[in-house]
Amino acid sequence: SQKIEQNSEALNIQEGKTATLTCNYTNYSPAYLQWYRQDPGRGPVFLLLIRENEKEKRKERLKVTFDTTLKQSLFHITASQPADSATYLCALDEGTYKYIFGTGTRLKVLA
Amino acid sequence: DSGVTQTPKHLITATGQRVTLRCSPRSGDLSVYWYQQSLDQGLQFLIQYYNGEERAKGNILERFSAQQFPDLHSELNLSSLELGDSALYFCASSESGGDPNEQFFGPGTRLTVL
Question: Cα distance from B3 to chain A (closest Cα, Å)?
Fold first, then answer.
C-alpha cells in the first residue's frame, strides 16, 4: 500500500529565510498531492493542491513542487515568519477515495 | 473557522463504554470524512461518506461504526472502548466525493479513555 514519509524531525529556521519541507511517497504516483497546516490541538487547514501534470504551484509565499520521477513533493515557504510555525502535513488519495496523511514536519521560525 | 462543527469538544469515559461523536459538515458539502489522530500514529483515515452512502473505508476497527444522515450530519460510534482509543477524532467535509478534494476539518473531539 502507499506510504508517505515526511521528516519527523523539527525544522528550525531564522525569520526571513526559506523553509523547505519534503514529502516522499513510496509506490505509484498519485493524481494529486495536498499540503495542510496544523496548529497544536486544532484541525488541519488546507493550503495547496498540486496535480501530477503540474510541476509547480504557487500561492502568495507558498510554493509546492511535484516530481513524479523522484516520487517527491517539496513545500517551500519564502520570507518565513514566526506565525508560520506549525506542523505541515502532506496528503494524497490512495485511490478509491482513501486518504493518507504523512505524520508531518514541525516547523519553527525563530525571530 | 472552517464551518465544520464537532461535538462534544472533550469526552472522558471508561474502558468498555460506548460513545458517539457528532459532526455537522459545511453548508452544501456532501462528503464527510472521519480521522483519528494519536501522538504516535499521526492522522489516520477511518471512513468517508458521500450523500448518505459509505464511499471508502480506511483503518476503522470493527468496534467503530459511522453513518451519515439525510441532513448530511454524521456520527461516529465507538464501542467497547480501550485505552488505546484515546485520541483526537477529526471530522472533515468537502463539496463532493470526487477528485480532487479540499477537505475542511472541524476542531476535533478529544477522547480520553480511562
Answer: 12
Within 10 Å of residue B86's Cβ, how many Cβ atoms? 17
User: How far B46 CA lies from chain A's nearest CA (Å)?
Assistant: 9
Q: pLDDT (tens digit, 9 = 90+) per residue, A59-90?
A: 999 999 999 889 999 999 999 999 999 999 99
As a whole number of angstroms, the distance between CA B47 and CA A92 comes to: 15
Interface of B with A in 54-113 (CB under 8 A): 55-58, 88, 90, 92, 97, 99-108, 110
Where on the phi/psi map is residue A47: left (φ > 0), alpha (ψ -120 to 50), or beta? alpha
Q: Do B108 and A93 touch (CB under 8 A)?
A: no
Read off the amino acid at residue B63.
R
Per-residue pLDDT of B57-100, as tens digits, reads: 998 999 999 999 999 999 999 999 999 999 999 999 998 756 67
- The backbone torsions φ and ψ at residue B83, rounded to the nearest 5 degrees and listed phi first, read -55, -40
Peptide bond into B107 cis (omega under 30): no
Q: Which residue has the cell 464501542?
A: B79
Which helix H or strand E contains B20, and what residues bound it?
A: strand B19-24
Q: Which residues of A fall within a CB distance of 8 Å from B99?
A: 31-32, 93
Question: Can you read off the three cell numbers belonging to residue A21?
Answer: 519541507
